[in-house]
Amino acid sequence: MNQWKELTEESRSKWEENAEFWDSYMGDLSNQFHREIIRPKTEELLNVQAGQALLDIACGNGNFSRRLTELGAVVTAFDYSPNMVQRAISRTGQAALNIDYRVIDATDYDSLLTLGTAQYDAAVANMALMDIADIVPLVQALGKILKDNGVVVFSIPHPCFQAPGTRKVHETEDRNGEIIHRNSVQVSSYLTPEPMYSIGIKGQPVAHLIFHRPLSYYIHTFMQSGFVLDGLEEPSFEPDESAKRQFDWYELPAAVIFRFRKIRS
What is the pTM of this model? Predict the structure, then answer.
């Protein structure tokens, strides 16, 4: 338990330092990766209906919280970084009428239960669960917080292709007079959960902690709290030779997006 607490405090400290940089970089519209890879399938899996109560977990600067209000939702959004929450509030404007921002630690079960019991139709976490040292308290709390048949939709970097020790390889081959380009990954470790430091955006002030877990870890953890997996997407950019994208690993999805549905309390 002390290990998780120490890791959570270190992680929070890193995000407090990175908050201004990430807020400026992501802005109101987020970046290309989120706009093209994360948001479309996340919105498809959420299928937001007007008037629904949604919970935005680890909301960062609130750009997706505000998008949810555009889709008609009433949103409660939280993050463990006070700096980030303050930036979310300052960006929100008129959308504040439909967003309640809070500072809550997603590893603190009792704090999560202050959000209420059976209050939300759905919860979402965009590229955030890998930043949480211990997701068990969060998943257990979601089993209480969500209404019956409520869903949790979350995205993470695809752990099969971005595990610790993963190396990205670009090969060029002259095959019968044709230049062939091929991208691949070398993975030396996958099954063992472990923390590691990461630079999510080039130039951020400090590296932040991320917590690698295999796919089975997420599935088992949610199943143990009364959820079933009923949606899964592995989005990637479409090949486009004319577009000079940073992300060109078309056959290797950079993210995986889950939808879990609550079937029992």
Answer: 0.93
